[in-house]
Amino acid sequence: MSTPMGRPNPAMDVTRRPVLASYDDYTAAQKAVDTLSDKGFPVQNVAIVGVDVRIVESVMGRLSWGRAAMSSGLSGAWFGLLIGLFVGLFSSTTDSLMPLVGLGLLYGAAFGIVLGLVTHAISGGKRDFVSRQQLQAARYDVLCERAVIGEARTILGLGGTWPPEPPEVVATTPTPPPAPETAEQPAGAVPRPGDGGDVPPPTT
């Protein structure tokens, strides 16, 4: 569903939805939403958000002239096959179906090979490899509206309370610091300087 420019789509506003559960892969997140749907939960209040999304490009091999021609030729053959089948279904006679399909397949493959060779020549060797791109995320968060997140947590076995109760904090009485230790003087000892006073030694 598209919205006018400048107006955010309320269904895509996920910034105000708390996290219901987090999963390491998309399949597990999809399974959680499917479980909610099977239980009759209004899944329009749920969104799956990929966190720390990155593009991973896997290099499949070197792109040679033959590989460029074969890849484009196969794509052109499929396109020509569909065109020939479409034209043959609307023809006046059924006998022309197979010839039209064959011609579409042949011309499509030929056009694809020429297009692949021309494209490879125009690139000038700047991208001489075949690769496949895919999106990967560090984790997938399932978000849910606050009004129904308790019901969703109950269905998924996460506990129905929201927000989760904080752990109990046990109040402790601070212990006073220990008193400084004092050195005991033995009986009959003469105090020395620094041991409680400067007392001069006895004179004879």
Can you give a write-up of this model?
With 204 residues, the chain is α+β, with helices and mostly antiparallel strands. The protein has four helices and three strands; from the N terminus they run E-H-E-H-H-E-H. The chain has a three-stranded antiparallel sheet. Helix 2 runs antiparallel to helix 3. The longest helix is centred in the middle third of the chain and has 27 residues.
Short key terms for the protein model shown above:
3-stranded antiparallel β-sheet; 204 residues; 19% strand; alpha+beta; Alpha-Beta Plaits
- Count of individual beta strands: 3
Which percent bin holds the helix content? 25-40%
The portion of residues forming beta strands comes to: 15-25%
- How would you write the strand order of the largest sheet? 1-3-2
Biggest beta sheet attributes: 3 strands, antiparallel
Q: Taking all residues together, what is the mean pLDDT?
A: 77
Give the low-confidence spans.
1-10
Global geometry: elongated
Indicate the multimeric state. Answer: single chain
Q: Which structural class do the helices and strands define?
A: alpha+beta
